Task: structure prediction
Amino acid sequence: MSMGNKKEKVLVTGGGGFLGKAIIKFLIQDEFEVFSFSRSYYPELESLGVTCIQGDLTNYTDVKRALEGIDGVFHVAALAGVWGKYEDYFQTNVIGTKNIVNACLELGIKKLVYTSSPSVILDSSESLSGANESLDYPQKYSNFYGETKAVAERYVLSSNGEKISTCALRPHLIWGPGDPHIFPRIFGKAQKKQLRIIGDGLNKVDIIFVENAAKAHLLAYKKLAHLSEVAGQAYFLGQEEEVFLWDFINEVLKRGGYKAIKKKIPFKLAYFIGFIFEVFYRALRITKEPPLTRFVCNQLGKDHYFSHQKARAHFGYCAEISTQEGLNRFFH
Result:
């Protein structure tokens, strides 16, 4: 997007990642001047005309250097996952985010879109069906990712004001071509015959195709301004049509050449097993992810879908690419 004759300069943290790369492609199409800040070097981004800056999110000097001369920021980089040390999650997700916000404030950068997650409001084994953004943060979390992302989200939103306009987007289960997480994980577990339907298999969840998630970031950014209705707000993002999780997984498996999962395990039993694994792995300081955790149990066995009315009303979000079209593109 041009500001007069010069292009608006935007920086994407984690630009080499799955979502970051998709956001960058939309920004280039829209004629922004794009910068990427990551630990690693991504020649693919450079070939698209992106200025790649390498550095450490947890190092304030690196962050400030990367943000010099920037007009707006998409903070996408995070440490995701269901297992690991608290300190690792805290450093990347909390300290890294505080560094971004504080550097924006110091340098007079006016706009920040933060990629959050519905994990910030997920706590116990409760189902969430059609919940909206009025839902409060829980007292306790079953994993460090959700806990640290919540601290970071609160910091971003509480920083919204005269000096900077901020918002937080919470896409749920991002997938699509190039997905390094969800589909490879499903195929890996299927190969090892480690997948079981947790509960009755009728739980519904939100999912989101990567291009829909990326487009939402651009739409929110364009609406973001001091005193705009987007400023200081959080938004759930999904396909606007929840899926029966196990029907979706079985369709993915079928298209990928695997057999459908039919064996079931009661939710309470799976949850207890996940808890035992966690205790055992922590006691023995095993860094490898356990076969099952309480968080994964909740993800696979409970309803987690949300209202997307707020995103639609505030910045015109809609899931342009349907779930079936997304699957066709992935398996093309």
Notes: The chain is about 40% helix and 20% strand. The longest strand covers residues 165-171.
